[in-house]
């Protein structure tokens, strides 16, 4: 257990115990915007882990445990090409299924061009209405650098990476509450996580400027930051994800 002290945040407490804010929020049934009270007692969940078996890849582990590949990589300090070895113990988000053994993943079926090259894959350009799909495109214009899904080298992109000029406004794809705004997750740079009704979450990474704060409520289309190249990228772009619960979905099917 941890007793909350003055000035502490969910992110700070999680970092102190080598947990993720998501783990801590789930373990204590904390609702957004995850405001802590002085004297509040927080249960510290035990770590969830998976022991790598021969033939496993990070992509395969993510598929069979239900955890996002990007989350596993961040929690274990893994860098491209995300090599793992038999016997290695990987920390997992608490909502994963660590008891299931992974098998070697098949070759990627839709590998994209390298991130440095702009592909011809596009997203709908309209920002005026969301239509029946419910989400707005977070930036106007730009080309997709890396689409959703398996990439070369066995890596899986949980969203899309969109190239746009530095300083281009990034807007909320749907009305919601800012669950996270900061740069504490390796590789993602300045990141905003926006929580929406119905268990939906959108993520906006590599931002140059953050213009919102945790707990702030945003309307659809409201500006939350600008395009940048923070984190593990060297060209201006935004990494955009749409999630339903813990499942990453193809943004092109929901915009």
Description:
The structure is a single chain. With 255 residues, the chain is of the alpha+beta class. The protein has three domains: 2-42, Membrane-bound Lytic Murein Transglycosylase D, Chain A; 51-92, Membrane-bound Lytic Murein Transglycosylase D, Chain A (Roll); 143-253, Glucose Permease (Domain IIA), CATH 2.70.70.10. It is 11% helix and 27% strand. The strands form four sheets. Strands 5, 8, 9, 10, 11, 12, 13, 14, 15 and 16 form a ten-stranded antiparallel sheet that branches. A two-stranded antiparallel ribbon has the order 1-2. Strands 3-4 form a two-stranded antiparallel sheet. Strand 10 (176-182) and strand 11 (190-196) form a beta hairpin. Helix 1 (10-16) packs across helix 2 (21-27). The chain starts with a strand and ends in a 6-residue tail after the last strand.
Number of strands: 16
Radius of gyration, rounded? 18 Å
Query: CA-to-CA gap between the ends?
Result: 42 Å
Percentage of residues in helical conformation:
10-25%
Q: Which structural class best describes the helix and strand composition?
A: alpha+beta
Could you state the order of secondary-structure elements as H and E? EHHEEHHEEEEEEEEEEEEE
How much of the sequence lies in strands comes to: 25-35%
Count of helices?
Answer: 4
State the CATH topology of the largest domain. Glucose Permease (Domain IIA)
The CATH architecture of the largest domain can be named as Distorted Sandwich
* CATH homologous superfamily descriptor of the largest domain: Glucose Permease (Domain IIA)
